[in-house]
Design a protein that fits this description.
With 252 residues, this protein is of the alpha+beta class. It has 2 domains: 2-112, 2-Layer Sandwich (Phosphorylase Kinase, domain 1), CATH 3.30.200; 118-240, Orthogonal Bundle (Transferase(Phosphotransferase), domain 1), CATH 1.10.510. It has 8 helices and 11 strands. α5 (132-148) crosses α7 (201-215) and α7 packs across α8. It is globular, with a radius of gyration of 20 Å.
């Protein structure tokens, strides 16, 4: 199995190798394993997080073997780029890849485990959360920093930002990093990047107001564009869901 480790963790390789080898039967599962499985392990005084990506379909087994970087490799490399740019993400530690001569199989991304106070998803469910508007406005400023640093986070969705309160301030950490582009973002792309975050108009009102201040635009204009983008995404999302249900029905 191929492995790439951060220089500061190379002395721990034997232990991390063992975690990978025994992944199915050890570690503490974190969250639900819908597609990929995440487990937490103790590495000395640290807690680390290992994400096991499922074996891809046959087409992608060939693509990842010969044409594309794996999700684990992209996660590792993108995390290092984020840290270089001063953007919060759990410390990357390593990635592992298992493949045959012709096909790609499993991959693992290893990072520091961050014990957060909440995720953005919490804000979509608990409107009475302490410091609610303060956190939401701080998150909007964090998103603005991503855009200003040419970071187009394609999976900017409710579960992918961890939030931690430190000395009265809120720190944000991106996770699930494998879908990201590093490019200059025009106004339309920036607004669309908020479209997957919430279905609640009240949240879009706060985020659009804060973002309008940051880009020196009219708040009403930004709100209308951001809400339109949100509604468009929701229509497309549920249309896709309906088609998937129909396909399952016909396959049954």
């Amino acid at each position: 199995m191929k492995s790439v480790l951060e220089a500061s963790f190379k002395t721990k390789q034997t232990e991390i190798d063992r975690f990978i080898d025994q992944f199915e039967h050890s570690g503490v599962q974190f969250g639900k394993a819908a597609r990929n499985t995440i487990k937490v392990f103790k590495l000395g005084a640290k807690e680390i997080n290992i994400k096991s990506f499922k074996v891809p379909n046959m087409f992608n087994q060939i693509a990842y073997k010969f044409l594309r970087k794996s999700k684990a490799q992209r996660s590792f490399e993108y995390a290092n780029i984020l840290i270089e740019k001063g953007i919060g993400t759990p410390q990357p530690i390593a990635y592992y890849e298992d493949a045959t001569a012709l096909l790609f199989k499993k991959s693992f991304y290893v990072s520091e485990h961050v014990n957060c106070d909440l995720t953005y998803r919490t804000l979509t469910k608990d409107f009475d959360y302490p410091d609610y508007e303060t956190i939401l406005r701080a998150f909007t400023r964090f998103t603005f920093r991503l855009h200003e640093n040419h970071i187009h986070f394609l999976d900017h969705s409710p579960g992918n930002t961890l939030i931690k309160k430190v000395n009265g301030d809120y720190q944000f950490y991106l996770v699930d990093l494998n879908r990201m582009r590093f490019e200059s973002m025009d106004f339309k792309m920036r607004i669309k990047n908020f479209s997957r975050l919430t279905i609640h108009k009240s949240m879009v009102e706060i985020m659009s107001d804060e973002y309008a201040k940051l880009i020196n635009e009219d708040a009403k204009k930004v709100f209308q564009l951001m809400w339109n983008a949100t509604e468009t995404f929701q229509r497309q999302f549920y249309r896709k869901k309906r088609w998937k249900k129909r396909l399952k029905f016909w396959k049954a």
